[in-house]
Amino acid sequence: MQYLHLGDWEASNWLYKGQVNLNYKLHKFIAITGGPSYNFYNTNQTSFQQAFRKDLRTSGIAPTQHDRNWYSWIGWNVGLTFF
Asked: Which residue from 6, 1, 3, 2 is spatially nearest to 51, judged by alpha carbons?
């Protein structure tokens, strides 16, 4: 769970993520990890500061709006692990 600050500390902007990752060891001390994620976003913010974005930008599948405050989308993640 992450809080996203979009210009108003009184607003609720929460991002929830569920991820399933695979880990592949490339070398003794380096591994690559990645996999799909399912994301939920909840906001009650109605006004936005000029320097902050209000639209959801995702690559691939566009977000689904469940009601006025709830959105979801499928995504992915990838990373390197150094042990």
From this structure: 6
What is the spatial distance between Cα 39 and Cα 71, in angstroms, rounded to a whole number?
8
The contacts of residue 43 (CB under 8 Å, 6+ apart) are 4, 6, 11, 12, 13, 14, 69
Between strands 22-25 and 13-19, the pairing is unpaired
Angle at 60 between CA 49 and CA 30, to 5 degrees: 95
Q: Can you give the pTM of this predicted structure?
A: 0.69
For 49, the token pair is 């500061």
The amino acid at residue 41 is Y
pLDDT tens for 45-80 read: 776 666 566 566 655 577 888 888 888 999 899 999
- Cβ neighbours of residue 12 closer than 8 Å, sequence gap 6 or more: 42, 43, 44, 45
